[in-house]
Specification:
mainly alpha, 2 helices
Length: 58
């Protein structure tokens, strides 16, 4: 009996995930991807500027 309940729960969760993917395509992917630099396209890490934007001092 307990196995049936667990299987039904897992099937319900899988069904909910499929419906969410149909209703909101790409939303989760965009949420977890880091921002990218507009000039060079590198992924931004942290809140500071991209290394391509900082001035190099010699």
């Amino acid at each position: 009996m307990l196995v049936k309940v667990v299987l039904l729960f897992l099937l319900a969760m899988a069904l909910m995930a499929m419906v969410a993917n149909l209703l909101f395509p790409g939303r989760l992917k965009k949420r977890f991807l880091p921002g990218r630099c507009a000039k060079c396209g590198r992924p931004k890490i942290g809140t500071g500027p991209c290394p391509c934007e900082t001035r190099r001092i010699k």
